[in-house]
TrEMBL record, chain A:
It comes from the Bacteria. This is Tripartite tricarboxylate transporter TctB family protein. The keyword Nucleotide-binding does not apply. The keyword Ribosomal protein does not apply. The lineage of its organism: Bacteria, Pseudomonadati, Pseudomonadota, Gammaproteobacteria, Oceanospirillales. Pfam families: TctB. It comes from Vreelandella maris. Keywords: Membrane, Transmembrane, Transmembrane helix.
From TrEMBL, chain B:
Residues 18-440 form the DUF112 domain. The keyword Membrane applies. Keywords: Membrane, Transmembrane, Transmembrane helix. It comes from Vreelandella maris. It comes from the Bacteria. The chain crosses the membrane at residues 20-37, 49-68, 110-132, 138-155, 167-184, 204-223, 260-281, 323-344, 356-376, 388-406, 413-445, 465-489. InterPro entries: DUF112_TM. This is Tripartite tricarboxylate transporter permease. The keyword Transmembrane helix applies.
TrEMBL record, chain C:
This is Tripartite tricarboxylate transporter substrate binding protein. Belongs to the UPF0065 (bug) family. Residues 1-27 form the signal peptide. Keywords: Signal. SUPFAM superfamilies: Periplasmic binding protein-like II (SSF53850). Transmembrane segments: none annotated.
Length: 149, 501, 330
């Protein structure tokens, strides 16, 4: 298991190197003044990457422990939450979206519902005013929010 | 000869300007400590404020310079406490800073890095005062060929970081360089690896890159750690609050050497705090890491990059003040601020507007003392961040990451990209990669490629240009020695032992 | 507040009554909160362009609430262009900074599916001019000497500037070559990241000719480190630039104005657009603004509304022709 991960990575990286080299060779330039154009460097790197990956496939190193199924699911959930944060960020505005996401994240990290909600409310409201008023950073207030104020 | 400086202190020590230096230092520390909001954004945000308040030129410059130096101080905090670099210059600070905090030495680590920052910046300010005009002439001697040689030197000095798994270090660096090739190629104007997305034309932004790689992957790892059996989500011990004099003295060589290295790299236009941090860290590891403790919480490994990145921040004032050429993105913004007041920095500034030049340099001295006084006692307070439970810390990191990227791009694509890079960073860390070589490859690779191509464009393809000048030849020799000596010396020693045995 | 600011600017005008009417019309068509997008990272030319409008409108009292400046880097302006076309096409509070560089990129088709006539070009508040610069100890005293030498030894004179092949910085070098009956392809041209780096390379004699902008050269001119062989303007500029001959008066017919202006979304109402045009026109006539513009190193330029729109369309068409001619596009 441990050894396999490095080998899989090595093969994936060789694939990446091939992609990079093919893309680089296909670059089209209208014209160029340069003796060394934009292709040489990526092609050189892809060769280097291939050699290094081959070495790794034949001499794989130690890897960390991979998460078990339940944990992997939780990790995925965190990612989904962060993705939702991104989607909601401009739609609902900073305060509402961070209230939702902070509460959910706190729950995922084993906070009680009460603590999670409190963190969510405090962080979103204080954060909003800290960033916008004190530091002068513009944040989305949310399209729907505008109509209320 | 130093009349302008005496007058400058007269200007900088008025109550208003002193107050502004203090305010700037405080705000700058805060901007720097927030991941993604670095000195450039801090200054860009405060510039209109200074202008609207109707501050005189020297006062607003003092405010902005204090923000700039303060941000370099602040950048170390989240590096040490959260393993998330607060800005570009603080990437190397994570390597030894975070392990120190995990061992319960967050307070001393913050204190030591404040002292290192102070000494590094002071070395650079003295250098700026004494040698600015002279150094400006040296800086322009660095053309594309010299920069290429400098990058070769920087990459070969990275070989010291190979550590346990040299192959993975090398792969990490190559991946970093590849990420740096995304976007419009500045030499030819062709699009590389943009996959048809205009959002990628300008390349993958540095801030998006470090926030994704470090902050997002850190959130994922924290979740794992809080579930692993050998660590019940326990927080690191808080331990001592203050750094001891003895600890500072152990690092004095590292701090002074790195301050000098940082200053010189800062003076060169085009290289800044991130390159300075990398070169000083690897140099110091090579010089003084006899027991191989760098990377596991060695105080010297923390002191070196902090001294260097602050020195580089000050060093980049040299080309700006003496030549009117911005040496970094931040000084470009400062240059814009000066233009707003109808002051054109350059050779004439010291004679035509001595109160501005002198006031600025004097305020750098004062700002640094303010920053040290501010940061030493605060070390204990900030160290408490570590006692914050995960369910508060993780959402806070998430918010900071999103705000940091959003205020820079006002665009969701950058946030998606940050998440993708975060997953990539998580996988790399799980597979036993270190993130520092990836970042270094990203920073140095682009400089290396473009300068190589520029040099060869100038010479029309003649590679001789690459080692024509004394500077580049010297750098090539140094680079080769760096690679050969560590390999050769043990062999020679072993040979001697064998013959003796 | 709104009445206050309207009154303040009105007092500065002779025709008070009509001005008040304009003010009211403006106030209705444009929301109080305004925004300028700089399609770049903080600190660049687009940032300064946004700040020019924001500070100017603020200082002259034409707006009551400070204008917000936000950044949208990506695709040399393409991301912001697409954003305005796609997401905020009818937003009457939004203006976006643009320049000659944007027109060049539009001409080269670098803004994706959108063309130059997709947005409403608002106007330009200032202009800078290209310059042909050599080091103070260079052998060439005039543009003609440089061009003669260049024709004989094209391989010994390296041009450099802050942009790639196809950028507005490169266009200056290409046009100069063309005006001297040389193909731009025969130049030796080096692209740097920004004018500052290229200028440093000129001072260090790594390149021999720098095609920059007049405003960024002021301190070097005063310090006597460089020689400007030609200004790419219609006529000689004043102040510190009075001694610099134009390219045209030396027999090379090249002009390169770098305007700093703004555009708005394609579906913005005519009312809001007209109100903005009037607002910008008033701004450009204000003496307070003139000082501000000069501090930025910009020269006066007043083209607004339809006039500016035609100007930009014309420029884009011209650049398209040029790009085809030198083989940049097919």
């Amino acid at each position: 298991m441990k050894i396999a991960a490095d080998r899989v990575l090595g093969i994936a990286l060789i694939g990446l190197a091939a992609f990079i080299a093919v893309q680089a060779v296909q670059l089209e330039m209208p014209f160029s003044y340069e003796p060394v154009g934009p292709k040489a460097f990526p092609v050189g790197l892809s060769i280097l990457l291939t050699i290094l990956s081959l070495v790794m496939i034949f001499r794989p190193g130690p890897n960390g422990q991979w998460p078990h199924k339940a944990l992997a699911l939780k990790l995925l959930l965190v990612l989904v939450l962060l993705l939702a944060f991104a989607v909601l960020f401009t739609q609902l505005g900073f305060i509402v979206s961070s209230l939702l996401v902070v509460t959910a994240l706190a729950r995922l990290f084993d906070a009680t519902w009460g603590k999670a909600l409190l963190t969510g409310v405090l962080m979103s409201v204080i954060g909003y005013f800290l960033f916008t008023t004190a530091l002068g950073i513009s944040l989305p207030s949310g399209y729907w929010f505008d109509t209320f104020i | 000869m130093f009349d302008f400086l005496i007058d400058g202190f007269g200007v900088a020590l008025t109550p208003l300007n002193l107050g502004l230096a203090f305010l700037g230092a405080l705000l700058g520390t805060l901007f720097g400590a927030l991941p993604g909001i670095g000195p450039i954004n801090g200054i860009a945000i405060l510039m209109p404020l200074a202008y609207t308040l109707g501050l005189p030129a020297e006062s607003s410059l003092i405010l902005l310079a204090a923000v700039y130096t303060g941000a370099e101080y602040g950048g170390r905090m989240s590096s040490i406490l959260l393993n998330v670099p607060g800005d570009a210059g603080a990437v190397m600070t994570t390597l030894d800073g975070y392990p120190l905090a995990q061992q319960g030495l967050a307070g001393p680590a913050l204190g030591l890095s404040a002292v290192s920052s102070f000494v590094g910046a002071t070395i650079a300010i003295i250098g700026l005062t004494l040698f600015a005009p002279l150094l400006a002439n040296v800086a322009v001697m660095f053309g594309p060929a010299e920069f290429f040689a400098l990058m070769i030197f920087a990459f070969s000095s990275m070989s010291v970081m190979m550590g346990k798994d040299p192959i993975k270090t090398a792969i990490g660096a190559v991946l970093g360089v590849l990420i740096g090739t995304v976007g419009i190629d500045s030499g030819s104007g062709v699009l590389r690896y943009t996959l048809g997305m205009p959002e990628l034309y300008d390349g993958i932004d540095f801030v998006v890159m470090i926030i994704g790689l470090f902050a997002i992957s850190e959130i994922l790892l924290m979740l794992e750690n809080s579930h692993s059996t050998d660590n019940d989500g326990e927080l690191p011990p808080l331990g001592r609050v203050f750094v001891s004099l003895k600890e500072v003295l152990v690092c004095k060589g590292a701090i002074i050497r790195s301050g000098l290295i940082g200053f010189i790299i800062g003076v060169l236009p085009g290289t800044g705090a991130s390159v300075a941090g990398a070169v000083s860290y690897t140099t110091e590891k090579r010089l003084s890491d006899k027991d191989n403790t760098f990377g596991t919480g060695d105080m010297r490994g923390l002191a070196a990059p902090e001294s260097a990145n602050n020195a580089a921040a000050v060093g980049s004032f040299v080309p700006m003040l003496t030549l009117g050429i911005p040496g970094s993105g931040t000084t470009a913004v400062l240059l814009g601020a000066l233009m707003l007041y109808n002051i054109t920095p350059g050779p004439m500034m010291f004679t035509e507007r001595p109160e501005v030049a002198g006031g600025l340099i004097a305020s750098l001295y004062i700002g640094n003392i303010v920053l040290l006084m501010l940061n030493l006692p605060l070390a204990g307070v900030f160290a408490r961040v570590l006692t914050i439970p995960r369910w508060v810390l993780v959402p806070a990191i998430a918010i900071l990451a999103f705000v940091g990227v959003y205020q820079l791009h006002s665009d969701l694509f950058a946030i998606y990209l940050m998440l993708v890079i975060g997953v990539f960073g998580y996988l790399l860390r799980k597979l036993g990669f270190s993130l520092a070589p990836v970042i270094l490859g990203y920073v140095l690779g682009g400089l290396m490629e473009q300068n190589l191509r520029r040099a060869l464009s100038i010479s029309g393809g003649d590679v001789g240009i690459l080692w024509q000048s004394g500077i580049s030849l010297g750098l090539w020799v140094a680079a080769v020695l760096l690679l050969v000596l560590p390999w050769l010396v043990p062999k020679l020693l072993a040979g001697r032992k064998l013959s003796a045995g | 507040m709104k009445i206050n600011s309207t009154l303040r600017y009105a007092s500065g005008l002779a025709l008070m009554g009509s001005a008040l009417l304009i003010g009211q019309a403006q106030a209705q068509a444009i929301p109080e909160s305004t925004e300028c997008i700089a399609p770049a990272k903080p600190g660049g030319g687009y940032d300064l362009t946004c700040r020019l409008a924001a500070n100017g409108l603020q200082d002259t009292g034409l707006i009551s609430k400070p204008m917000m400046v936000s950044y949208m880097p990506g695709g040399i302006g393409a991301v912001a262009y697409n954003h305005v076309n796609g997401v905020r096409a009818d937003d009457p509070s939004l203006i976006v900074a643009a320049s000659t560089g944007a027109a060049v990129n539009l001409a080269l088709g670098k803004f994706g599916e959108y063309d130059a006539d997709e947005v409403r070009w608002l106007g330009a508040l200032g202009v800078d001019y290209g310059a042909i610069v050599v080091s103070a100890d260079a052998p060439w005293q005039s543009l003609d000497e440089l061009m003669t030498d260049l024709k004989e030894n094209p391989n010994e004179i390296a041009f450099g500037a802050g942009g790639t092949v196809g950028s507005q910085d490169w266009m200056k070098a290409a046009l100069i070559a063309k005006s001297g009956d040389m193909s731009p392809r025969d130049l030796r041209y080096v692209a740097f990241e920004g004018g500052g780096e290229a200028l440093a390379a000129l001072l260090g004699d790594h390149i021999q000719v720098f095609t920059g902008d007049l405003s960024e050269l002021r301190s070097q001119l005063e310090g006597g480190k460089i020689r400007v062989l030609a200004a790419l303007s219609e006529e000689r500029m004043g102040g510190p630039y009075a001694d610099i001959p134009t390219a045209a008066e030396q027999g090379y017919d090249v002009e390169w104005p770098i305007w700093r202006g703004y555009y708005m979304g394609p579906e913005v109402s005519d009312e809001a657009y007209q109100a903005w045009v009037e607002r910008m026109q008033q701004l450009s006539e204000d003496p307070v603004f003139a000082e501000l513009r000069e501090a930025r190193g910009l020269f006066p330029m007043s083209r607004f509304g339809e006039d500016f729109d035609r100007y930009v369309q014309g420029q884009v068409a011209e650049f398209k022709g040029l790009a085809e001619e030198v083989g940049l596009t097919k």
